[in-house]
Amino acid sequence: MENKKVLEIKELMKNDLVDSVDMNKLNDLKVKYLGKKGLITLLNSEIKNIPNEEKKEFGMMVNELRNDFNNYYENKKQELESALLNEKLSKEAIDITLPSKKIKRGSLNPMTRITEEFEDLFVSMGYTVFEGPELESDENCFQKLNLPKGHPARDAQDTFYLKDEVENYLLRSQTSTAQVRAMEENIDKGPIRIVCPGKVYRRDEDATHSHQFMQIEGLVIDKNISMADLKGTLEVMMKHVLGEKTEVRFRPSYFPFTEPSVEVDVTCFKCGGKGCNLCKDTGWIEVLGAGMVHPDVLTMSGYDPNVYQGFAFGTGLDRMAMFKYGIPDIRTIYGNDLRFINQFDRKDDE
To answer: At what angle do helices 110-124 and 317-325 cross, to 10 degrees?
Structure first.
């Protein structure tokens, strides 16, 4: 009697499997026959009611039925999945003979280019790149650079102070603050050779000035350092950036943190020193300020000025980029115009 029931389910299963034309129907059949209340599953619960001499044959028939279903299910599942994949591939086929879409190539901003150029040069000369925070104390930004409160030279570096923190914290007006930090962090008070690139802030804005701009400053402290070392370093720097024919000259100047101080000029890179509208017919263009580190600055950072000397220099990276690439207006550097930025790949190749 029970064996007849197995044969009836087997015949029913054959008819059902013929209609399993998609994955949904196939999965429904799996639930119908092998689910918790499936037809094959329920046959197992009947085995306790079968006489002992018939249990073996009945069990073998049920197992054979289950194996038949599983084999069919796996084969049909693979067949349906392959058909689905082939259909998807045919609909999403890519014609590789078609011309590809042009991929836009990115380009570095001229400020990134000039910064990396300076860093690579000075690292090759044994310098370390040292970056300080943009938010600084008045002490580091002015006082430890020999600019006490009320000093008239502060007016030229009018910057942005934090609300409710007037005269305590501000956006740095020069990267010299990083030099102060480097000297103080040098616990052994030994030699230093660093360059400090970064953003600085001042309250002015026109075609050649911006309220935010980039500076790079250099500091060397060691024994027996002289102005000759400073000039030799600046000549290497200017020839590297502006060309091998570039000449450098010093003019006496004043900076509170250096003594003696100099303004540094280079031969006009447009006319080669002959005189033109760019250099106002002088043949020279001012590019940076420099000098020997003031003894008071050394003392405030823990150095003995009788043992150590040093030189420092600083220039605006925006200004150097304008000179090198012929940029007439500093504001275009920060305008995010792709037409402006993309041209510098070609300019570097020239």
So the answer is: 110
Q: Alpha carbon of 330 to those of 160, 205, 323: distances in Å?
A: 20, 9, 11
Place of tokens 């008045």: 138
Closest CA to 208 of 47, 45, 38, 332: 332
| Dist. CA 286–CA 248, nearest whole Å | 10
Query: Which tens digit of pLDDT belongs to each residue from 187-229?
Result: 888 999 999 999 888 876 555 566 888 899 999 999 999 999 9
Our CA angle for 314, 320, 325, nearest 5°, is 170
Lowest-confidence region among 212-226, 290-304, 313-327: 313-327
Tokens of 95: 């014609």
| Peptide bond connecting 260 to the previous residue in cis, omega within 30 degrees of 0 | yes
Three-class DSSP category at 288: strand
Q: How far apart are CA 240 and CA 337, in angstroms?
A: 28
Has residue 154 got a pLDDT over 80?
Answer: no
pLDDT of residue 346: 59
How are the residues of the chain apportioned to helix, strand and coil, as percentages rounded to the nearest 5? Answer: 45, 20, 35
**Which residue, 187, 221, 210, 346, is CA-closest to 295?**
221
Nearest to 299 by CA among 291, 308, 312, 290: 308
Pair 253, 263: CB distance under 8 Å: yes
Structural domains of the chain, with CATH: 2-91 (no CATH), 110-349 (3.30.930.10)
What would the mean pLDDT of 150-173 be, rounded to a whole number? 76
Please, which residues have CB within 8 angstroms of residue 130's CB and are 6 or more apart in sequence?
Answer: 178, 179, 181, 182, 194, 195, 196
